[in-house]
């Protein structure tokens, strides 16, 4: 029985989501894993949009529960940080003690991206901690996102792939994704 | 022994983080829970910033492991979505099957905030799914953030408090936080 990998990431929102998820699934199988993709299972209609959303949440959690690990696409989505749904899913699977790997298609790290969000208006406070113009502190740990995400993967000896994708291939370039597959194939 | 609640949220980044965390901790104790706050434990120095970040990740995870539940502050942070660290932590504690509650200090829901991110340039595709100008689909489930976060709490019969805080009290207004405490006090 091949190990099952849950493929977390914001590509479910793309217009060509099916095509990308199929490509990720095929690549996953080529490394002898079984892919589990959110979006693969038909969700029954529900009386309200809200209840439909809850059904998707239930199906996605049951998929994670059946998985042996995750590859999380942490490429920033609609802003300077990872998709929050993907962050939730990564935390969920870290808590389950399963195989973890993550990738990003942007090479600027978390600190660089937050500094850019603040147009570079970063200054150290009296303790040396770097802060933005709104007074909030910036994590500067050479990590790809908030330390809980990067640390959660790295501390589990999971793999973090960092790759610079072309701007028009930010959510479709699978170089980092395949790098994670290669790594996980050595772990089993 | 009082139940322990992990207090997740981006207020750890505020200039007056200590003050806010102390206020949250005092309020938590007033409802007979024991607060566990990231930032409460001294983290030993490490040879590199990166290793220091990993140490914080380890300490925060051990705090979550010792907790009986979480109250997650999902108020959007540096953009239109929740702090990714908080999203990770909420997923982590949902996977552990513990008590969960969440609050937001912004009443615009996820759909409204993403629509605003796209300056209202939202149109239905051929299947009726609403998409932004970049082609990505918007979740429209009357939820406060991505469905995994809202659904993860709601499906566990956790509480979601929605409160409109003043702009200058976005991360310090504790009305929604106290609402979660009141709710959790009825669950035990």
Number of domains of chain A: 2
Total count of strands of chain A:
7
Shape of chain A: globular
CATH topology of the largest domain in chain A: Rossmann fold
CATH architecture of the largest domain in chain A: 3-Layer(aba) Sandwich
Strand content of chain A: 5-15%
Helix/strand-derived category of chain A reads alpha/beta
Biggest sheet overview of chain A:
5 strands, parallel
Brief write-up:
The structure is a homodimer of 188-residue chains. Chain A is built from 6 helices and 7 strands, in the order βαβαβαβαββαβα.
Structural notes for this entry:
The structure is a homodimer of 188-residue chains. With 188 residues, chain A is an alpha/beta fold. Chain A folds into 2 domains: 147 residues, 3-Layer(aba) Sandwich (Rossmann fold), CATH 3.40.50; 34 residues, no CATH class. Chain A has 6 helices and 7 strands; from the N terminus they run βαβαβαβαββαβα. In chain A, β1, α1 and β2 form a beta-alpha-beta unit. The longest helix of chain A has 18 residues. The two termini of chain A are 12 Å apart. At the A-B interface, α2, α3 and α5 of A face α2, α3 and α5 of B.
């Amino acid at each position: 029985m091949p190990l099952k990998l849950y493929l977390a990431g914001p590509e479910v929102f793309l217009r060509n989501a099916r095509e990308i998820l199929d490509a990720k699934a095929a690549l996953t199988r080529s490394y002898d894993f079984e892919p589990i993709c959110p979006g693969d299972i038909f969700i029954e209609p529900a009386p309200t949009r809200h209840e439909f959303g809850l059904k998707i949440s239930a199906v996605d959690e049951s998929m994670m529960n059946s998985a042996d690990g995750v590859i999380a696409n942490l490429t920033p989505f609609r802003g300077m940080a990872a998709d929050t749904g993907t962050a939730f899913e990564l935390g969920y699977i870290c808590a389950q003690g399963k195989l973890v790997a993550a990738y990003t298609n942007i090479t600027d790290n978390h600190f660089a991206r937050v500094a850019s969000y603040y147009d570079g208006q970063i200054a150290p406070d009296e303790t040396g901690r770097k802060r933005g113009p709104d007074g909030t502190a910036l994590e500067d740990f050479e990590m790809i996102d908030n330390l809980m995400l990067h640390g959660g993967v790295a501390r589990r000896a999971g793999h973090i792939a960092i790759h610079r994708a072309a701007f028009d291939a930010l959510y479709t370039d699978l170089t980092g994704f395949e790098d994670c597959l290669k790594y996980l194939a050595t772990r089993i």
